[in-house]
């Protein structure tokens, strides 16, 4: 399963419009997602959501609406629970998208491991836990069994919390050591679990969104605004901004301008979550689910979403789409060895040529390796491995890139880039980018053609004042490579080439 957690689209649910539902579900499908988890702290969604998932081939993990609290157990309340559960299970039973019903979000884990029992007598604790059992071990599974059209049921998510080593070997896993505990992203390389139903990292929404809710201009210096009341009001975590800053210092140069800081925060989020997604996919068939937190927002906020409240796609959206590709080339460093994995959604044995090219940032070819894929490859085994030093042969870590491709004929069926140093240690030149913009044949938007003389890292395209969506964004361009991107928009701005803005990591330091 590949996808994300879904929260309500609006803080006031009656404000949710069908077109926004349609756009978000289409966004999920376009990002190669095949499952959304409707989180138990939200709402039972409107009919259109499930119908859109049916037609888009997206399965739904459906929580019952119980989350992060202990609930009453008097008879009147339990009767309400039973009626609500039966009504919603009946309502959704005929939707083929419903893959799973889950009783609650994190309640079992919190009761046993978060100190929720503190302050209660033994009799009180027993009564509260018996009430929990009546709801989640009796009423809800009975409703699913009687009316759920064969859908399975689990009582809680996760089965075990991250403090319990069983969480990585049994049931689903919410792994929040990255973020809450400030563990490095690299922890996600080994903390894969059997089914990752929650993990994630925050970023700022686009600067236009931030400016609308805060009034902070893009050229404001970062130290002058991170603790502003306007930003803190729209920050979804009490330590959120400081955590973003702490992680950014590890991997990136922290920009001085706020607009650049917002951009790098999105690169940071995408880097960490993609690292987790790829590790989880490499771990198949041991790990068979990767649902990050979260797809969307219910209001304009600094949050874990990959699509912001106004529908703008963050860097994470585009990187998740690549990490969820049906065919994925996934390079990873393990100690002094570079391992190249191939992950496919297809049950068929893949065919093709694995080609590795080591390039410097001016585009000079330093090394090339080509190997046919073996006729039989166990899942979870690397296609190829090579010592780091043997590969780079004395070249500077921060000045080379490994281009990993699966070739079929002359075309690359899958591609991924591997850098030998964190972004802050890359010696990035001025990329010498050139861009041409022309109207797409038949209308509907514009074609953006890009070429770079030298490596262009994390190319971010925007068209201020013109609402629309780029088919790809926050990508790297190799020296001499031609890249074509479609900007879908109903608007026809005068001189779109002058409106186009391009930012790269080299220019955001």
Supply database-style keywords.
Immunoglobulin-like, globular, four-stranded antiparallel sheet, six-stranded parallel sheet, 509 residues, 22 strands, 24% strand, alpha/beta, TIM Barrel
Can you put this structure into words, describing what you see?
This protein has 509 residues and is of the alpha/beta class. Among the domains are: 2-63 and 158-203 and 266-323, Glycosidases (TIM Barrel); 327-425, Immunoglobulin-like (Sandwich), CATH 2.60.40.10; 433-507, Sandwich (Immunoglobulin-like). The protein contains 13 helices and 22 strands. The strands form 6 sheets. The protein has a 6-stranded parallel beta sheet. It has a 4-stranded antiparallel beta sheet with strand order 12-11-14-15, with no helix packed on it. Helix 6 links the parallel strand 6 (172-174) and strand 7 (195-198). Helix 3 (75-92) runs parallel beside helix 5 (122-147) and helix 10 packs parallel to helix 11 (315-323). It is globular, with a radius of gyration of 24 Å. The model has no long low-confidence stretch (mean pLDDT 95).
């Amino acid at each position: 399963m590949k996808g994300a957690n879904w929260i309500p689209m609006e803080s006031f649910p009656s404000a949710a419009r069908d077109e926004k539902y349609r756009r978000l579900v289409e966004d999920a499908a376009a990002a190669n997602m095949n499952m959304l988890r409707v989180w138990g702290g939200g709402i039972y969604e409107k009919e259109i959501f499930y119908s859109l998932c049916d037609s888009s081939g997206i399965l739904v993990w459906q929580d019952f609406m119980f989350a992060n609290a202990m609930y009453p157990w008097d008879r009147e309340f339990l009767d309400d629970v039973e009626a609500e559960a039966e009504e919603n299970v009946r309502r959704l039973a005929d939707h083929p998208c419903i893959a799973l019903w889950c009783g609650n979000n994190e309640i079992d884990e919190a009761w046993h491991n978060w100190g929720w029992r503190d302050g209660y007598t033994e009799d009180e604790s027993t009564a509260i836990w018996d009430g929990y059992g009546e709801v989640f071990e009796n009423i809800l599974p009975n409703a699913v069994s009687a009316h759920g059209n064969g859908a399975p049921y689990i009582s809680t998510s996760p089965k075990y919390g991250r403090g319990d080593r069983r969480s990585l070997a049994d049931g689903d896993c919410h792994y929040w050591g990255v973020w809450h505990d400030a563990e490095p992203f690299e922890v996600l390389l080994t903390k894969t679990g059997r089914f990752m139903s929650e993990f994630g990292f925050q970023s700022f929404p686009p600067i236009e969104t931030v400016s609308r809710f805060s009034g902070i201009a893009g050229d404001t210096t970062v130290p002058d605004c991170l603790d502003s009341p306007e930003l803190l009001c729209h920050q979804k975590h009490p330590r959120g901004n400081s955590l973003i800053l702490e992680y950014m210092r590890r991997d990136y140069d922290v920009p001085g301008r706020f607009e650049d800081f917002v951009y790098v925060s999105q690169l940071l989020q995408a880097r960490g979550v993609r690292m987790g997604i790829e590790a989880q996919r490499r771990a198949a068939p041991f790990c068979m689910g990767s649902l990050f937190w979260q797809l969307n927002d219910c209001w304009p906020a600094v949050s874990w979403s990959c699509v912001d409240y106004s529908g703008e796609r963050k860097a994470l959206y585009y990187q998740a789409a690549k990490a969820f590709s049906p065919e994925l080339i996934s390079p990873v460093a393990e100690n002094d060895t570079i391992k190249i994995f191939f992950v496919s959604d297809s049950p068929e044995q893949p065919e093709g040529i694995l080609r590795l090219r080591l390039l410097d940032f001016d585009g000079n070819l330093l090394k090339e390796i080509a190997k046919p894929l073996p006729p039989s490859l166990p899942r979870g085994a690397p296609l190829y491995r090579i010592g780091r030093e043997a590969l780079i042969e004395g070249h500077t870590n921060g000045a080379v890139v490994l281009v990993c491709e699966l070739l079929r004929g002359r075309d690359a069926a899958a591609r991924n880039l591997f850098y030998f140093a964190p972004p802050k240690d890359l010696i990035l030149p001025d990329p010498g980018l050139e861009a041409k913009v022309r109207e797409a044949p038949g209308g509907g938007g514009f074609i953006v053609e890009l070429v770079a003389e030298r490596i262009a890292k994390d190319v971010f395209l925007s068209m201020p004042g013109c609402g629309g969506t780029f088919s790809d964004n926050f990508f790297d361009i190799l020296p001499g490579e031609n890249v074509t991107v479609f900007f879908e928009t109903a608007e026809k701005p005068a001189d779109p080439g002058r409106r186009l803005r391009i930012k790269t990591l080299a220019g955001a330091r």
